[in-house]
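To: structure subgroup
Subject: Chain for Friday's discussion

All,

I'm putting the inputs and outputs inline so they're searchable in the archive.
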Amino acid sequence: MQFNFGNDVETFMLEHISEVVEIIGDGHCGYRSLAELLGWGEKEWVRVRRELVEELDRHRGLYDPICLLDTIDELQEQIDYYTSPAPPRHWIHMPHTGLIFATVYQVILVHLDLHEPVTCLPMIAPPGSSPPKTIFCIARLHSQQHYIVVSKQYFIVPFCFHITFFIFTLPYDMHKMKTCVDAQIWLDDNALLPSVITTWSYYHNASVAGWDTPLLHRIKQFTECRNVIRDHVPIVLDD
């Protein structure tokens, strides 16, 4: 199966895709993939949804400011859905869901988007916790109606790590099962990360203050690469 990533993913990330393996999708693929990344297997997507809903119940005041377009009740209703196939309203919504996911599982979640890539950190953590050493990543392919979920598991201290892409279709016809794919890739120890989402910077709990510091050098590299590409994009004028 062939995919054209160039219109949706930063070109400096494309060289890292090395293999594609098919999986099945039903509109819950985002949560299926996250369950797989957590080591539970994709059938545990229901568990992921339920635990995110429980997190919203526990810390409603913490998440209310991040719901810029929806209310927290609407966000909870979007996640709290367990019928298959899932209609578009109940597909995974980023980056809001990313902040909740990062908090529940105490990981870093990167959302790669050609227009607005962000890094999501936990909003709150138990007393005495240290910054996460695991990074997951999902990427959106707008032009092909696909979503890529990338498992990035490595220590913040540089070392070579393994990344897994889970690419799944967001179908218009939800009565048809769609094909999803898993692409396994390797990156070097200089992984690039987009900027931390602004809402985290404003509204995170004091228990996670400074957790973005270990990532700043990688964020700077990502920004520099992105700026170089933007500076070299030709401007085309119509006659």
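Points worth raising on Friday:
The mean pLDDT is 75.
The chain has eight helices and seven strands.

D.
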